[in-house]
Amino acid sequence: MPFLVIGAIAFIIAGIVLRQWRSTLGDSRAMLAAETYNVSNLEELSRAIADELGSAGSFRQTAEVKGIIHCEQPLMSELSQRHCVYSRTNVIEQCEHTYYEEDGEGNSERKTREESNTLAESDLKIDFQLEDDTGTIQISLDGAEIDAIEVVDRFEVSRGESISFGGFSFDPTNRLPVGTDSKRILGYQFNEWILPVGQYVYVLGEVSDSDGILKVQKPSNPGDRFLITYKTEEQLTQHKQSVARKQQIGGFVAFAVGVVCVIAWLMTGN
């Protein structure tokens, strides 16, 4: 029975990992298959379709575009206080909690465990203009998979007083009961990811003029990918291919373990 159970678990793991491998491989192939356009090319294609049909609004094209982020009224990131078009912020409070637990003989034993509480969490975004050497095009962030730059990764040890970081501030004395000894604040973990104004980005999505202007947006086909990242296309494809190779090897190894366990179970009956 142990061999059969281990084999079943190995087959399940193999199925999950190999499914992830196919998904990763599909992402890599989608990026390689998508054609790179400059803004001028897309404007010409859009006008040609509009002239052929007699009106604008029907142009749709899967494309890669690359350029610099521009935005007249950008966001201000909370922690790093930088102008950006996307900002994701997390502030986590790390605590040590003391509690008592009875053993089998009824004796009370003092124990501690670490806990974490989210103090602040935000995910802000705004549409922007992408500029290349030939022009500008609007980028809609709705529904996009966003790969942003981590600009803050800091742990601050608690000193029992109010803390502030950029535009964030918090006073722990207003929340914890005076004199409590069951919970001790260890410190605060600050993390922030942004797409700053002026950053070079790679965008894979659907170009459309359905709203009256030419823009890159979430594809109408649910299976197509919509990605905005600060990484280059070469970096992305190399990373995806490396991950896919590891997933493929891991999946086949797990499958082989499952086969060996089933054979062992058939031979031993255990």
UniProtKB/TrEMBL annotation:
This is RING-type E3 ubiquitin transferase. It is a multi-pass membrane protein. Pfam families: GIDE. It comes from Rubidibacter lacunae KORDI 51-2. Its EC number is 2.3.2.27. It is found in: Membrane. It is an enzyme of class 2 (transferase). Its main location: membrane. InterPro entries: MUL1-like, SP1/SPL1. Keywords: Ligase, Membrane, Metal-binding, Transferase, Transmembrane, Transmembrane helix, Ubl conjugation pathway, Zinc, Zinc-finger. Residues 98-261 form the E3 Ubiquitin ligase MUL1-like domain. GO terms for cellular component: membrane. PANTHER family: E3 UBIQUITIN-PROTEIN LIGASE SP1-RELATED, PTHR47568. It catalyses: S-ubiquitinyl-[E2 ubiquitin-conjugating enzyme]-L-cysteine + [acceptor protein]-L-lysine = [E2 ubiquitin-conjugating enzyme]-L-cysteine + N(6)-ubiquitinyl-[acceptor protein]-L-lysine. It comes from the Bacteria. GO terms for molecular function: ligase activity; ubiquitin protein ligase activity; zinc ion binding. The keyword Cytoplasm does not apply. The chain crosses the membrane at residues 249-268. GO terms for biological process: protein ubiquitination.
